[in-house]
Structures are given as structure tokens and as C-alpha cells.
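Contributing new complexes? Match this layout with 2-oxoglutaric acid.
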Amino acid sequence: MSSSLAAFRIAGLPPDFYYIPNFISVEEEASILQKIPAQRWTHLTRRRLQAHPSTLTKNNTLLAAPLPAYLTHPVFQRFKERGVFEGTPHRQPNHVLINEYRPGEGIMPHEDGGAYAPVVATVSLGGAVCLEVSSKASGNEDDGTTTSEPADCKDSEGSLDEGLTSTMGYTIPTRIFQEPRSLLITTGVAYRDLLHGIASVEVDEGLSAKTVANWGLLAEPGVIEDAGGRNVRGTRISLTYRDVLKVSSAASKVFGGLQKR
Ligand SMILES: O=C(O)CCC(=O)C(=O)O
Ligand SMILES: [Fe+2]
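Output block (do not edit by hand):
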């Protein structure tokens, strides 16, 4: 990850989350929102989504196809400037999931898994939302905040598994507040060993410098303070950019098929 990202690292969380406020402008946000195709949604119980250029095959392969221009411009250039995908096999995203959450909707705690290079870049549009971050090792039950011990306080014979070890010294579970037009990058240990989810609530509550890990990076913490630590959800659309590891060229399939005849 490039050094221009260092200033945006969310300190106090396992490596690495980066939060960049105002990654896109109000005009760019409006333009993207207006171009999301209305007929492409798949409806789930608690949200709806669409995959571009398409859903992965059963063995997690992407059928190579270009992404629509509104998803690549202007964000690809900005990813490049910041080196977001410089360490992934294709050096840029080849897949985008668009998720829409209305007030009261969310997504269960989960990990994104091994079909992708371990870098996800999430652009938030419309409403703000809290991402709940929890550790795989401690489960995802929200039984209050627990702080695991710093690694250097443990003796090296400790029988803790890798997941626990890598989250030591960090306050987890915690929350990342995602403002509209922001970018959140999840990579490394954070990608591998943590779970993320969005609570199905109409209001995020109790938001403060103490409970929100990226408070110091927010564009407008005053908005939350003025609202008494509450975020009344509006409709939020997220674009999650990823580099799918296995890509199959449609053309080679067609020609391979023809050659067999
Ligand atoms: O909407 C988000 O910010 C999270 C979406 C997500 O976790 C996913 O698509 O895997
Ligand atoms: Fe996810």
C-alpha cells in the first residue's frame, strides 16, 4: 500500500483499514447514483444488490468483461494515485458489487473470503452508516467492548490461534462510520481475520470519539455530535471494488469450444 495512504490509516485497528473522507465529490456521487441500472437488482431479505460485470461462477471465477464506465471513472484513477490495488494480481479491480440498504436494513457479520485478492475498496453513496467490526476468534456477539491484550504482554508459548493473536492490542468489536462519498479500504489482517457487518437498524446510536474507530478521520464529526451521537439512516448505496483472482476469458472459451468440433 502506498505511502500516500498512511495519513488515512485507522489507528487502533488491526492492519489495515484506511478511511478517506470526500473521496468523490457531490456531483460525482449524484452522477454515479443516477447511472446505476434500475433493472439489474437482485432482491434479498435485508438489502438488494447487483454485481458488475456479472456474478462469479460457482467456482469463484469471473467471466472477463469490462466494467461500465460510471464505475471506473473517476475512481480508478484515484485508486491508482493512492496505490490501492498496486499489490493485487491484476493491479486494479475487475469486479464491483453494488449494495443498497434502506433504513432498517443491513448485512450479517461476515468475511469476504478467498475468491478475491485481500483488498476491498468501498465507496459510500447517499446515506451514512456504521460498519460493525468484530473478531472471528471472539465470535461476533456484541457483548460489550473487549480489549485484547497487546501481543508483547503475552508469553510466546501462548496457545492462542493466529486470528486472536493478530487482533491483540486492539479494541474490538468496534465501529467504522462511513460518510457519504467516503472510501474505506480493508486489507491485510483486517481483511483476513476480522468480520464486518451492518446492523439492521433505523438509527445508529451512541456514536462518539470513544465508540467510532475512525472518528479523527471523519469529514464532519460535528453532524453526529449535533445529533446527540445519532445517525438516522437514509438509503445508502455502496460500491465494493475487488480484484477477483480467477478470471476466465469468454473469447478463449468460445474459440476453445469451436476448436473441439
Ligand atoms: O455495504 C458495505 O459497505 C459492505 C458490503 C459488504 O460487506 C460486501 O459486499 O461484502
Ligand atoms: Fe463484505
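Reviewers usually confirm one structural detail per submission. For this one: DSSP finds seven helices and 17 strands in the chain.
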